[in-house]
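Hi Y.,

Following your request, here is the sequence exactly as I used it, all 215 residues.
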Amino acid sequence: MKKNSVLLVVYCLFSVPVVANTKVIALLEGEHFWGGCVTDGRAMPFGSKRFERDLYGNTQGNQAQPLLLSDRGRYVWCEEPFKFTFAGKTLKVEARAGEIRTGKQGDTLREVFQYVSHTYFPSTGQIPDERLFIKPQYNTWIELIYDQREDRIPALLQESVAISDGSSLCLDRRTNPQNDLAGPNPDTFSRRFRDRPCTARNSCPSRSAWARSRC
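Below is the corresponding structure, written out as tokens. Let me know if you'd prefer a different format.
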């Protein structure tokens, strides 16, 4: 009996999300917010009806950021993912870790975005590789999405002007989640397209070791 009680306590500790801090913000009349998951853009702006999203471990298969911006110059920011809920006239934000920061800067989206970008994620000031601007870029992830097969990539390249104009190639080695097929073999393409330069390091797929090595 004692052992079962201990197991129950352990289960409860690990199954119930731990909320480090919570903030409830009263919405202003006619105020709207943008942010969170890119794929939730179809539901934006937030504020006029109920909406809920937990960013912890869930980016809806695309990009996301723990940031909400208001057209009244207000913002919500956290260094860690948070859950946010618009209901009625309030915005509730819950974070398991990190400090939830809120504030107001100006009275427009432009003003508040400029403030939070300079404050929380400022630009490095570095200019991307010149080839990103002077030559076309061909990324197999953009062109083929999940269908990264070795029989399709050469055909794609042969059809593009990239073969003759010295433009850049980024090879994506991500596994196809629909059929568990491995991505293209980098050795095959490094032999066949050895003269294809890669674009700036940050523009290469993060999981493509071959592409990074060509930068």
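The beta strands are 21-26, 33-37, 51-54, 64-70, 74-77, 82-87, 90-95, 101-104, 137-139, 168-170.

Thanks again,
Q.
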